[in-house]
Protein backbone atom coordinates (compact mmCIF):
# COMPACT_ATOMS: atom_id res chain seq x y z
CA UNK A 1 0.00 0.00 0.00
CA UNK A 2 2.84 2.36 0.79
CA UNK A 3 4.31 1.72 -2.65
CA UNK A 4 0.94 2.38 -4.24
CA UNK A 5 0.51 5.72 -2.39
CA UNK A 6 4.02 6.75 -3.38
CA UNK A 7 3.32 5.96 -7.02
CA UNK A 8 0.10 7.96 -6.93
CA UNK A 9 1.82 10.94 -5.29
CA UNK A 10 4.66 10.80 -7.78
CA UNK A 11 2.20 10.68 -10.67
CA UNK A 12 0.35 13.61 -9.20
CA UNK A 13 3.55 15.65 -8.90
CA UNK A 14 4.41 14.82 -12.53
CA UNK A 15 0.98 16.02 -13.67
CA UNK A 16 1.42 19.27 -11.70
CA UNK A 17 4.83 19.89 -13.30
CA UNK A 18 3.40 19.31 -16.77
CA UNK A 19 0.52 21.73 -16.18
CA UNK A 20 2.71 24.46 -14.78
CA UNK A 21 5.44 24.32 -17.40
CA UNK A 22 6.00 27.54 -19.31
CA UNK A 23 4.47 27.88 -22.79
CA UNK A 24 7.84 28.19 -24.46
CA UNK A 25 9.36 25.12 -22.82
CA UNK A 26 10.16 22.18 -25.12
CA UNK A 27 7.69 19.31 -24.94
CA UNK A 28 8.75 15.89 -23.82
CA UNK A 29 8.81 13.31 -26.60
CA UNK A 30 7.75 10.57 -24.14
CA UNK A 31 10.25 8.21 -25.74
CA UNK A 32 8.87 8.53 -29.26
CA UNK A 33 12.09 9.90 -30.78
CA UNK A 34 13.88 6.50 -30.64
CA UNK A 35 10.83 4.90 -32.27
CA UNK A 36 10.93 7.50 -35.05
CA UNK A 37 14.64 6.87 -35.62
CA UNK A 38 14.02 3.11 -35.81
CA UNK A 39 11.21 3.65 -38.33
CA UNK A 40 13.46 5.87 -40.45
CA UNK A 41 16.26 3.27 -40.44
CA UNK A 42 13.73 0.58 -41.38
CA UNK A 43 12.50 2.69 -44.31
CA UNK A 44 16.01 3.34 -45.62
CA UNK A 45 16.97 -0.33 -45.20
CA UNK A 46 14.04 -1.40 -47.37
CA UNK A 47 15.00 0.98 -50.16
CA UNK A 48 18.70 0.06 -50.04
CA UNK A 49 18.45 -3.70 -49.52
CA UNK A 50 15.36 -4.63 -51.52
CA UNK A 51 15.91 -2.01 -54.22
CA UNK A 52 13.08 -0.06 -55.86
CA UNK A 53 13.91 -1.57 -59.27
CA UNK A 54 12.61 -5.00 -58.16
CA UNK A 55 9.74 -5.86 -60.51
CA UNK A 56 6.27 -6.76 -59.32
CA UNK A 57 5.68 -10.32 -58.14
CA UNK A 58 2.74 -12.58 -59.02
CA UNK A 59 0.48 -11.67 -56.09
CA UNK A 60 1.48 -8.02 -56.31
CA UNK A 61 0.38 -7.99 -59.94
CA UNK A 62 -3.06 -9.24 -58.95
CA UNK A 63 -3.50 -6.48 -56.37
CA UNK A 64 -1.95 -3.64 -58.37
CA UNK A 65 -3.73 -4.48 -61.62
CA UNK A 66 -7.11 -3.90 -59.93
CA UNK A 67 -6.48 -0.16 -59.73
CA UNK A 68 -4.06 0.69 -62.53
CA UNK A 69 -5.30 2.10 -65.80
CA UNK A 70 -2.23 0.83 -67.67
CA UNK A 71 -2.89 -2.92 -67.44
CA UNK A 72 -5.99 -5.16 -67.55
CA UNK A 73 -7.07 -6.44 -64.15
CA UNK A 74 -5.90 -9.97 -63.32
CA UNK A 75 -8.26 -12.59 -61.89
CA UNK A 76 -9.06 -11.85 -58.25
CA UNK A 77 -9.64 -15.11 -56.36
CA UNK A 78 -11.90 -15.72 -53.36
CA UNK A 79 -9.33 -15.51 -50.52
CA UNK A 80 -8.05 -12.10 -51.58
CA UNK A 81 -9.29 -8.77 -50.19
CA UNK A 82 -9.13 -5.29 -51.68
CA UNK A 83 -7.10 -3.65 -48.92
CA UNK A 84 -3.77 -3.80 -50.75
CA UNK A 85 -5.35 -2.44 -53.92
CA UNK A 86 -6.67 0.52 -51.92
CA UNK A 87 -3.26 0.98 -50.32
CA UNK A 88 -1.42 1.25 -53.64
CA UNK A 89 -4.12 3.19 -55.51
CA UNK A 90 -2.69 6.67 -54.74
CA UNK A 91 0.37 5.75 -56.85
CA UNK A 92 -0.61 2.81 -59.06
CA UNK A 93 -3.76 4.51 -60.37
CA UNK A 94 -1.71 7.08 -62.31
CA UNK A 95 1.88 5.84 -62.54
CA UNK A 96 3.44 2.71 -64.06
CA UNK A 97 6.68 3.27 -62.12
CA UNK A 98 7.48 0.26 -59.95
CA UNK A 99 10.33 2.20 -58.31
CA UNK A 100 7.94 4.95 -57.24
CA UNK A 101 5.53 2.38 -55.84
CA UNK A 102 8.35 0.67 -53.90
CA UNK A 103 9.51 3.94 -52.31
CA UNK A 104 5.92 4.88 -51.46
CA UNK A 105 5.30 1.52 -49.76
CA UNK A 106 8.64 1.67 -47.91
CA UNK A 107 7.68 5.08 -46.50
CA UNK A 108 4.26 3.78 -45.49
CA UNK A 109 5.81 0.69 -43.87
CA UNK A 110 8.15 2.87 -41.82
CA UNK A 111 5.27 5.08 -40.72
CA UNK A 112 3.18 2.02 -39.93
CA UNK A 113 5.91 0.53 -37.75
CA UNK A 114 6.25 3.80 -35.85
CA UNK A 115 2.51 4.05 -35.18
CA UNK A 116 2.26 0.37 -34.21
CA UNK A 117 5.07 0.66 -31.63
CA UNK A 118 3.73 3.99 -30.39
CA UNK A 119 0.47 2.21 -29.51
CA UNK A 120 2.43 0.33 -26.80
CA UNK A 121 3.81 3.40 -25.00
CA UNK A 122 3.23 3.17 -21.28
CA UNK A 123 2.88 -0.61 -21.40
CA UNK A 124 6.60 -1.33 -21.80
CA UNK A 125 9.69 0.88 -21.48
CA UNK A 126 10.95 2.57 -24.64
CA UNK A 127 14.11 0.37 -24.86
CA UNK A 128 11.89 -2.72 -24.94
CA UNK A 129 9.74 -1.23 -27.71
CA UNK A 130 12.78 -0.22 -29.74
CA UNK A 131 14.24 -3.71 -29.35
CA UNK A 132 10.94 -5.30 -30.36
CA UNK A 133 10.66 -3.07 -33.40
CA UNK A 134 14.27 -3.74 -34.38
CA UNK A 135 13.74 -7.49 -34.09
CA UNK A 136 10.63 -7.48 -36.26
CA UNK A 137 12.06 -4.98 -38.76
CA UNK A 138 15.31 -6.92 -39.18
CA UNK A 139 13.65 -10.20 -40.17
CA UNK A 140 14.31 -10.84 -43.85
CA UNK A 141 10.62 -11.44 -44.44
CA UNK A 142 9.76 -8.01 -42.98
CA UNK A 143 12.40 -6.17 -45.00
CA UNK A 144 11.53 -8.04 -48.18
CA UNK A 145 7.76 -7.52 -48.03
CA UNK A 146 7.80 -4.02 -46.52
CA UNK A 147 8.02 -2.24 -49.91
CA UNK A 148 5.82 -4.81 -51.67
CA UNK A 149 2.11 -4.71 -52.41
CA UNK A 150 1.26 -7.59 -50.10
CA UNK A 151 -1.21 -7.81 -47.18
CA UNK A 152 0.47 -9.78 -44.40
CA UNK A 153 2.76 -7.09 -43.05
CA UNK A 154 -0.18 -4.70 -42.78
CA UNK A 155 -2.12 -7.32 -40.85
CA UNK A 156 0.90 -7.53 -38.54
CA UNK A 157 1.00 -3.77 -37.97
CA UNK A 158 -2.77 -3.64 -37.50
CA UNK A 159 -2.48 -6.42 -34.93
CA UNK A 160 0.16 -4.50 -32.97
CA UNK A 161 -2.02 -1.38 -32.99
CA UNK A 162 -5.18 -3.22 -31.96
CA UNK A 163 -3.61 -5.27 -29.15
CA UNK A 164 -1.57 -2.37 -27.78
CA UNK A 165 -4.52 0.02 -27.74
CA UNK A 166 -6.74 -2.71 -26.26
CA UNK A 167 -4.36 -3.07 -23.33
CA UNK A 168 -4.08 0.69 -22.87
CA UNK A 169 -7.84 1.17 -22.74
CA UNK A 170 -8.23 -1.89 -20.51
CA UNK A 171 -5.86 -0.26 -18.01
CA UNK A 172 -7.32 3.25 -18.31
CA UNK A 173 -10.96 3.68 -19.35
CA UNK A 174 -10.44 7.42 -19.84
CA UNK A 175 -8.07 6.77 -22.77
CA UNK A 176 -10.65 7.29 -25.52
CA UNK A 177 -7.90 7.59 -28.10
CA UNK A 178 -6.87 4.01 -27.38
CA UNK A 179 -10.43 2.88 -28.04
CA UNK A 180 -10.25 4.45 -31.49
CA UNK A 181 -6.91 2.72 -31.96
CA UNK A 182 -8.51 -0.66 -31.30
CA UNK A 183 -11.07 0.03 -34.01
CA UNK A 184 -8.44 1.34 -36.43
CA UNK A 185 -6.22 -1.72 -35.98
CA UNK A 186 -9.19 -4.03 -36.57
CA UNK A 187 -10.18 -2.09 -39.71
CA UNK A 188 -6.66 -2.33 -41.11
CA UNK A 189 -6.44 -6.07 -40.52
CA UNK A 190 -9.87 -6.81 -41.95
CA UNK A 191 -9.25 -4.66 -45.03
CA UNK A 192 -6.14 -6.68 -45.80
CA UNK A 193 -7.20 -10.22 -44.85
CA UNK A 194 -10.59 -10.58 -43.09
CA UNK A 195 -10.02 -14.17 -41.99
CA UNK A 196 -6.62 -13.34 -40.49
CA UNK A 197 -8.22 -10.43 -38.62
CA UNK A 198 -10.68 -12.80 -36.99
CA UNK A 199 -7.96 -15.21 -35.92
CA UNK A 200 -5.83 -12.41 -34.43
CA UNK A 201 -8.70 -10.88 -32.46
CA UNK A 202 -10.13 -14.07 -30.95
CA UNK A 203 -8.33 -13.56 -27.58
CA UNK A 204 -9.36 -9.87 -27.57
CA UNK A 205 -13.00 -10.76 -28.19
CA UNK A 206 -12.93 -13.45 -25.51
CA UNK A 207 -11.40 -11.09 -22.93
CA UNK A 208 -13.83 -8.30 -23.80
CA UNK A 209 -16.79 -10.67 -23.48
CA UNK A 210 -15.55 -12.27 -20.25
CA UNK A 211 -14.90 -8.89 -18.66
CA UNK A 212 -18.07 -7.33 -20.09
CA UNK A 213 -16.04 -4.53 -21.62
CA UNK A 214 -18.82 -3.26 -23.85
CA UNK A 215 -16.87 -0.42 -25.43
CA UNK A 216 -13.90 -2.60 -26.27
CA UNK A 217 -16.19 -5.24 -27.71
CA UNK A 218 -18.04 -2.62 -29.75
CA UNK A 219 -14.79 -1.11 -31.06
CA UNK A 220 -13.48 -4.52 -32.13
CA UNK A 221 -16.76 -5.57 -33.74
CA UNK A 222 -17.19 -2.24 -35.52
CA UNK A 223 -13.60 -2.29 -36.79
CA UNK A 224 -13.90 -5.84 -38.13
CA UNK A 225 -17.28 -5.08 -39.71
CA UNK A 226 -16.09 -1.91 -41.44
CA UNK A 227 -12.89 -3.50 -42.70
CA UNK A 228 -14.60 -6.66 -43.99
CA UNK A 229 -17.74 -4.97 -45.37
CA UNK A 230 -16.55 -4.85 -48.97
CA UNK A 231 -15.29 -8.46 -48.86
CA UNK A 232 -18.62 -9.67 -47.48
CA UNK A 233 -20.57 -7.63 -50.05
CA UNK A 234 -18.53 -9.24 -52.83
CA UNK A 235 -19.30 -12.64 -51.34
CA UNK A 236 -23.03 -12.08 -51.85
CA UNK A 237 -22.63 -10.34 -55.20
CA UNK A 238 -20.28 -12.84 -56.87
CA UNK A 239 -20.19 -16.07 -54.86
CA UNK A 240 -23.75 -16.57 -53.70
CA UNK A 241 -23.07 -15.78 -50.05
CA UNK A 242 -20.45 -15.60 -47.33
CA UNK A 243 -20.41 -19.35 -46.75
CA UNK A 244 -19.87 -20.01 -50.44
CA UNK A 245 -16.95 -17.57 -50.63
CA UNK A 246 -15.34 -19.10 -47.55
CA UNK A 247 -15.77 -22.56 -49.07
CA UNK A 248 -14.20 -21.41 -52.34
CA UNK A 249 -11.34 -19.78 -50.44
CA UNK A 250 -10.79 -23.03 -48.56
CA UNK A 251 -10.73 -24.99 -51.82
CA UNK A 252 -8.13 -22.66 -53.35
CA UNK A 253 -5.99 -23.06 -50.23
CA UNK A 254 -6.10 -26.83 -50.59
CA UNK A 255 -8.92 -27.44 -48.15
CA UNK A 256 -8.70 -26.14 -44.59
CA UNK A 257 -8.50 -28.83 -41.94
CA UNK A 258 -6.05 -30.58 -39.66
CA UNK A 259 -2.79 -30.41 -41.60
CA UNK A 260 0.68 -30.03 -40.13
CA UNK A 261 2.58 -27.27 -41.91
CA UNK A 262 5.26 -26.62 -39.27
CA UNK A 263 7.92 -28.34 -41.35
CA UNK A 264 6.75 -26.45 -44.43
CA UNK A 265 7.20 -23.14 -42.61
CA UNK A 266 10.70 -24.21 -41.59
CA UNK A 267 11.58 -24.98 -45.22
CA UNK A 268 10.29 -21.59 -46.31
CA UNK A 269 12.60 -19.73 -43.90
CA UNK A 270 15.47 -20.16 -46.34
CA UNK A 271 13.93 -17.53 -48.60
CA UNK A 272 11.15 -19.33 -50.44
CA UNK A 273 8.28 -16.93 -51.09
CA UNK A 274 5.77 -19.76 -51.55
CA UNK A 275 6.37 -23.36 -50.57
CA UNK A 276 3.65 -25.25 -52.50
CA UNK A 277 4.27 -28.10 -52.74
CA UNK A 278 6.83 -27.79 -49.99
CA UNK A 279 9.52 -30.32 -50.84
CA UNK A 280 13.28 -30.33 -50.67
CA UNK A 281 15.76 -30.23 -47.82
CA UNK A 282 15.54 -28.09 -44.72
CA UNK A 283 17.59 -24.88 -44.60
CA UNK A 284 20.87 -24.88 -42.69
CA UNK A 285 20.22 -25.07 -38.92
CA UNK A 286 21.73 -21.62 -38.38
CA UNK A 287 18.93 -20.15 -40.55
CA UNK A 288 16.10 -21.63 -38.48
CA UNK A 289 17.71 -21.37 -35.04
CA UNK A 290 15.91 -18.10 -34.20
CA UNK A 291 12.59 -19.79 -34.90
CA UNK A 292 13.16 -22.26 -32.06
CA UNK A 293 14.43 -19.55 -29.74
CA UNK A 294 11.16 -17.59 -30.00
CA UNK A 295 8.98 -19.93 -27.90
CA UNK A 296 11.70 -20.22 -25.24
CA UNK A 297 11.97 -16.45 -24.94
CA UNK A 298 8.17 -16.18 -24.92
CA UNK A 299 8.01 -18.54 -21.93
CA UNK A 300 10.70 -16.51 -20.15
CA UNK A 301 8.75 -13.31 -20.86
CA UNK A 302 5.64 -14.88 -19.36
CA UNK A 303 7.51 -15.91 -16.20
CA UNK A 304 8.96 -12.42 -15.84
CA UNK A 305 5.55 -10.81 -16.33
CA UNK A 306 3.84 -13.07 -13.79
CA UNK A 307 6.49 -12.36 -11.19
CA UNK A 308 6.18 -8.63 -11.84
CA UNK A 309 2.37 -8.86 -11.56
CA UNK A 310 1.79 -7.49 -15.04
CA UNK A 311 0.87 -10.72 -16.78
CA UNK A 312 -1.93 -9.42 -19.02
CA UNK A 313 0.23 -7.17 -21.19
CA UNK A 314 2.42 -10.18 -21.96
CA UNK A 315 -0.20 -12.94 -22.06
CA UNK A 316 -2.48 -11.11 -24.49
CA UNK A 317 0.04 -10.55 -27.33
CA UNK A 318 1.28 -14.12 -26.86
CA UNK A 319 -2.28 -15.43 -27.12
CA UNK A 320 -3.01 -13.33 -30.21
CA UNK A 321 0.25 -14.50 -31.78
CA UNK A 322 -0.76 -18.11 -31.14
CA UNK A 323 -4.20 -17.75 -32.71
CA UNK A 324 -2.73 -15.81 -35.66
CA UNK A 325 -0.23 -18.61 -36.35
CA UNK A 326 -2.61 -21.52 -35.70
CA UNK A 327 -4.23 -21.80 -39.17
CA UNK A 328 -0.90 -21.46 -40.97
CA UNK A 329 0.85 -24.06 -38.86
CA UNK A 330 -1.91 -26.64 -38.47
CA UNK A 331 -4.69 -26.05 -41.01
CA UNK A 332 -3.17 -25.68 -44.51
CA UNK A 333 -0.92 -27.95 -46.51
CA UNK A 334 1.64 -25.43 -47.70
CA UNK A 335 3.59 -22.45 -46.40
CA UNK A 336 4.84 -18.95 -47.06
CA UNK A 337 6.99 -17.12 -44.51
CA UNK A 338 4.86 -13.96 -44.80
CA UNK A 339 1.86 -15.85 -43.41
CA UNK A 340 3.40 -15.69 -39.93
CA UNK A 341 4.28 -11.99 -39.95
CA UNK A 342 1.39 -11.07 -37.59
CA UNK A 343 2.61 -13.71 -35.12
CA UNK A 344 6.20 -12.46 -35.33
CA UNK A 345 5.12 -8.85 -34.74
CA UNK A 346 3.08 -9.78 -31.66
CA UNK A 347 5.80 -12.05 -30.28
CA UNK A 348 8.38 -9.28 -30.69
CA UNK A 349 7.15 -7.30 -27.67
CA UNK A 350 7.34 -10.11 -25.06
CA UNK A 351 10.56 -11.45 -26.60
CA UNK A 352 12.21 -8.03 -26.33
CA UNK A 353 11.06 -7.80 -22.70
CA UNK A 354 12.64 -11.19 -22.01
CA UNK A 355 15.94 -10.12 -23.61
CA UNK A 356 16.12 -7.01 -21.44
CA UNK A 357 15.41 -9.14 -18.37
CA UNK A 358 18.36 -11.33 -19.32
CA UNK A 359 20.85 -8.48 -19.67
CA UNK A 360 19.74 -6.29 -16.74
CA UNK A 361 19.36 -7.09 -13.06
CA UNK A 362 16.25 -5.95 -11.12
CA UNK A 363 18.43 -3.13 -9.76
CA UNK A 364 19.11 -1.91 -13.29
CA UNK A 365 22.76 -2.96 -13.57
CA UNK A 366 24.16 -4.84 -16.55
CA UNK A 367 25.06 -8.52 -16.56
CA UNK A 368 28.31 -8.34 -18.56
CA UNK A 369 28.62 -12.01 -19.56
CA UNK A 370 24.97 -12.46 -20.49
CA UNK A 371 24.94 -9.11 -22.28
CA UNK A 372 27.92 -10.15 -24.39
CA UNK A 373 26.30 -13.48 -25.27
CA UNK A 374 22.96 -11.87 -26.18
CA UNK A 375 24.70 -9.20 -28.28
CA UNK A 376 26.70 -11.88 -30.10
CA UNK A 377 23.56 -13.93 -30.74
CA UNK A 378 21.68 -10.90 -32.06
CA UNK A 379 24.58 -9.94 -34.33
CA UNK A 380 24.68 -13.46 -35.74
CA UNK A 381 20.91 -13.42 -36.19
CA UNK A 382 21.09 -10.13 -38.10
CA UNK A 383 23.88 -11.45 -40.34
CA UNK A 384 21.83 -14.55 -41.19
CA UNK A 385 18.71 -12.49 -41.93
CA UNK A 386 20.64 -10.17 -44.24
CA UNK A 387 22.22 -13.12 -46.06
CA UNK A 388 18.82 -14.75 -46.65
CA UNK A 389 17.38 -11.40 -47.73
CA UNK A 390 20.17 -10.82 -50.29
CA UNK A 391 19.67 -14.31 -51.74
CA UNK A 392 15.90 -13.84 -51.87
CA UNK A 393 16.08 -10.45 -53.56
CA UNK A 394 18.55 -11.71 -56.18
CA UNK A 395 16.44 -14.77 -56.99
CA UNK A 396 13.22 -12.78 -57.27
CA UNK A 397 14.91 -10.12 -59.38
CA UNK A 398 15.99 -12.80 -61.86
CA UNK A 399 12.55 -14.44 -62.04
CA UNK A 400 10.78 -11.12 -62.61
CA UNK A 401 13.27 -10.16 -65.29
CA UNK A 402 12.46 -13.47 -66.99
CA UNK A 403 8.79 -12.48 -67.11
CA UNK A 404 9.72 -9.12 -68.62
CA UNK A 405 11.97 -10.79 -71.23
CA UNK A 406 9.20 -13.22 -72.16
CA UNK A 407 6.82 -10.30 -72.54
CA UNK A 408 9.32 -8.54 -74.81
CA UNK A 409 9.66 -11.63 -77.00
CA UNK A 410 5.87 -11.92 -77.24
CA UNK A 411 5.77 -8.32 -78.44
CA UNK A 412 8.35 -9.22 -81.09
CA UNK A 413 6.13 -12.09 -82.20
CA UNK A 414 3.18 -9.74 -82.63
CA UNK A 415 1.40 -10.30 -79.30
CA UNK A 416 0.78 -6.69 -78.29
CA UNK A 417 -2.03 -4.97 -76.38
CA UNK A 418 -4.89 -5.54 -76.59
CA UNK A 419 -4.10 -9.23 -76.28
CA UNK A 420 -4.75 -12.35 -74.20
CA UNK A 421 -2.27 -14.77 -72.66
CA UNK A 422 -3.18 -18.14 -71.18
CA UNK A 423 -1.31 -21.11 -69.77
CA UNK A 424 1.89 -21.34 -67.70
CA UNK A 425 2.50 -18.23 -65.55
CA UNK A 426 -0.04 -16.35 -67.63
CA UNK A 427 -0.85 -13.76 -64.94
CA UNK A 428 2.64 -12.27 -64.46
CA UNK A 429 3.69 -12.56 -68.12
CA UNK A 430 0.42 -10.99 -69.26
CA UNK A 431 0.92 -8.06 -66.89
CA UNK A 432 4.42 -7.37 -68.15
CA UNK A 433 3.17 -7.66 -71.74
CA UNK A 434 0.17 -5.38 -71.11
CA UNK A 435 -2.25 -8.21 -71.95
CA UNK A 436 -5.22 -9.80 -70.23
CA UNK A 437 -4.68 -13.22 -68.66
CA UNK A 438 -7.00 -16.21 -68.78
CA UNK A 439 -7.26 -19.69 -67.37
CA UNK A 440 -9.73 -22.48 -68.03
CA UNK A 441 -8.89 -24.48 -64.92
CA UNK A 442 -7.12 -24.40 -61.57
CA UNK A 443 -7.26 -21.70 -58.92
CA UNK A 444 -7.29 -18.86 -61.47
CA UNK A 445 -10.06 -20.15 -63.72
CA UNK A 446 -11.81 -17.15 -65.27
CA UNK A 447 -12.64 -18.09 -68.85
CA UNK A 448 -13.64 -20.93 -71.19
CA UNK A 449 -12.20 -22.47 -74.32
CA UNK A 450 -15.00 -20.95 -76.39
CA UNK A 451 -14.23 -17.47 -75.02
CA UNK A 452 -10.51 -17.88 -75.79
CA UNK A 453 -11.22 -18.92 -79.38
CA UNK A 454 -13.69 -16.08 -79.79
CA UNK A 455 -11.11 -13.62 -78.46
CA UNK A 456 -8.55 -14.93 -80.95
CA UNK A 457 -10.79 -13.69 -83.76
CA UNK A 458 -10.32 -10.11 -82.52
CA UNK A 459 -6.95 -9.76 -80.78
CA UNK A 460 -3.64 -11.67 -80.51
CA UNK A 461 -3.83 -14.70 -78.22
CA UNK A 462 -0.87 -16.72 -76.96
CA UNK A 463 -0.68 -19.83 -74.80
CA UNK A 464 2.44 -20.52 -72.72
CA UNK A 465 3.54 -24.11 -72.07
CA UNK A 466 6.05 -24.73 -69.30
CA UNK A 467 9.02 -27.11 -69.47
CA UNK A 468 7.82 -30.67 -70.06
CA UNK A 469 4.23 -29.55 -70.61
CA UNK A 470 1.92 -30.18 -73.53
CA UNK A 471 -0.23 -27.58 -75.29
CA UNK A 472 -3.94 -27.50 -74.46
CA UNK A 473 -6.29 -28.99 -77.01
CA UNK A 474 -7.52 -25.66 -78.34
CA UNK A 475 -3.94 -24.53 -79.15
CA UNK A 476 -2.42 -27.67 -80.67
CA UNK A 477 -2.87 -26.44 -84.22
CA UNK A 478 -1.43 -23.00 -83.48
CA UNK A 479 2.11 -22.24 -84.75
CA UNK A 480 4.74 -23.00 -82.06
CA UNK A 481 7.57 -20.73 -80.94
CA UNK A 482 10.26 -21.03 -78.26
CA UNK A 483 11.10 -18.37 -75.67
CA UNK A 484 13.76 -19.55 -73.26
CA UNK A 485 12.50 -22.79 -71.74
CA UNK A 486 8.89 -21.99 -72.67
CA UNK A 487 6.95 -23.18 -75.68
CA UNK A 488 4.55 -20.56 -77.00
CA UNK A 489 1.57 -21.20 -79.23
CA UNK A 490 0.17 -18.09 -80.92
CA UNK A 491 -3.27 -18.11 -82.50
CA UNK A 492 -3.21 -17.26 -86.23
CA UNK A 493 -4.83 -13.98 -87.12
CA UNK A 494 -8.13 -14.12 -89.04
CA UNK A 495 -6.30 -12.81 -92.11
CA UNK A 496 -4.05 -15.89 -92.10
CA UNK A 497 -7.06 -18.15 -92.41
CA UNK A 498 -5.48 -20.90 -90.34
CA UNK A 499 -7.50 -23.18 -88.01
CA UNK A 500 -8.13 -21.86 -84.53
CA UNK A 501 -7.60 -25.14 -82.79
CA UNK A 502 -9.76 -28.06 -81.69
CA UNK A 503 -12.01 -26.90 -78.92
CA UNK A 504 -13.40 -30.41 -78.58
CA UNK A 505 -10.12 -31.61 -77.11
CA UNK A 506 -11.02 -29.92 -73.82
CA UNK A 507 -9.59 -27.23 -71.58
CA UNK A 508 -5.99 -26.72 -70.66
TrEMBL record:
The chain crosses the membrane at residues 31-50, 99-117, 123-145, 154-171, 177-210, 289-308, 315-336, 366-389. The keyword Transmembrane helix applies. Keywords: Membrane, Transmembrane, Transmembrane helix. It comes from the Bacteria. This is Integral membrane protein. It comes from Streptomyces hirsutus.
Amino acid sequence: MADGRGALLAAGRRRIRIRTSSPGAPRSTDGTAPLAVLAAVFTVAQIVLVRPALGLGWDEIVYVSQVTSHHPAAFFSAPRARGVSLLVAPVASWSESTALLRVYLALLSGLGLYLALRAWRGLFPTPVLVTAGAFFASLWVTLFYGPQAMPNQWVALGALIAVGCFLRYHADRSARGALWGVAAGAVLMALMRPTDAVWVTIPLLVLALAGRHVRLLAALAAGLAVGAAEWVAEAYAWYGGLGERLAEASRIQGGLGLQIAVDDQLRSLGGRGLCRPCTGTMPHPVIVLWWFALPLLAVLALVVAVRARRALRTVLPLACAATAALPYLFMIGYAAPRFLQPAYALLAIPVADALWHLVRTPAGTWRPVVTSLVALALAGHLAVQLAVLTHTVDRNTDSRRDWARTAGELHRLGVRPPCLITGHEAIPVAYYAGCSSGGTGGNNENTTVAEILSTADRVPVATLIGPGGTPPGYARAWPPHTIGDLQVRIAPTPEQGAPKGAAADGPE
